Amino acid sequence: MKALAEPAGGPAPDARAPVLELQGVSASYGPYRALFGVSFAVGRGEAVALLGSNGAGKSTVARVVSGLLAVTEGRMTMEGVDRTNQQPYRLARAGVAHVVEGRGVFGRLSVEENLTLAFRQRVSRGGLAACLEQAYEAFPILALRRHQKGANLSGGEQRMLSLAKVLVVPPRLLVADELSLGLAPAVIDVVYENLRRIHSAGAALLVVEQHVDRIVGLAARAIVLEHGSVAFLGRASDAVAAVEALLAARGKDR
Predict the structure, then answer these.
(1) Is 11 helix (H, G, I), strand (E, B) or coil?
(2) Is the pTM for the entire model greater than 0.85?
(3) Cα–Cα distance, 204 to 42 (Å, whole number)
(4) What CA–CA distances, in Å, run from 212 to 45, 219, 251?
(5) Architecture in CATH of 20-103+171-253
(6) Among residues of the chain, what percentage have pLDDT more than 90?
(7) 3-state secondary structure of 209
(8) In what order do the strands lie in the sheet with 96-99?
């Protein structure tokens, strides 16, 4: 299914450049500085894990990438185009989708209304029925709940609904923020199975996660944050040892 393109104008994207690159990015919540010179890149179609303990800055990076938090220092580019501090709607048009931990759905709308609203923004009206059919095929539980209000879904069903919005028409970059938090193992399996499907369809992934074992099988590279800075950047298979080393060092400091 072909997505609607961003309106013409401005510099043209460079297909050779990373789909996302942060260069020395810092960010703050008022007087509290949360990120300190964070630099990394996500290549076209690549899956990258963003790891770290609570408060390390993972969700702050996700908010910066989707335009929900301003960059105070540094630069963010997508396919070579400077996107620093662009509004969320501009980043969404450029191909960024942010699936957040928690609800991330319109609670007063039904499952089908949530999906219809998302798909109409990205495909022509004639493709809507096919998009709905694919979403329900991927998540059969949503087909059963199609007339149920989003607010009445379980936590796992809400994550599935959020993923269904981007599964059918994959974005250039999906930022998945703590999707496994608080879910039963069987539901996490479904969530990650569909993350793999989105990745296989060509989307680059930046997956924020606390559970290293869950992400290693999906991501080729990993970034570990500690106190808002990059503490490790390398192969995902080496991330377990990096996280364990950080925890050990933290224990010695106490």
Answers:
(1) coil
(2) yes
(3) 7
(4) 21, 10, 19
(5) 3-Layer(aba) Sandwich (3.40)
(6) 63
(7) strand
(8) 96-99, 173-177, 204-209, 47-51, 221-226, 229-235
Quick one: tokens of 238?
Answer: 């080496």
Model confidence at 103: pLDDT above 80 = no
The model's pLDDT over 77-87, given as tens digits with 9 standing for 90+, comes to 999 999 999 99
Domain residue ranges in the chain: 20-103+171-253
Stated as kind and residue range, the H or E segment containing 81 is strand 81-82
Give the other-Cβ count within 10 Å of 192's Cβ. 19
CB-neighbour burial class of residue 32 (10 A; exposed 0-12, middle 13-18, buried 19+): exposed
Contact 226, 241 (CB under 8 A): no
Q: What distances in angstroms separate CA 61 from CA 82, 163, 212, 224, one per listed residue?
A: 17, 20, 18, 12
C-alpha gyration radius of the chain: 18
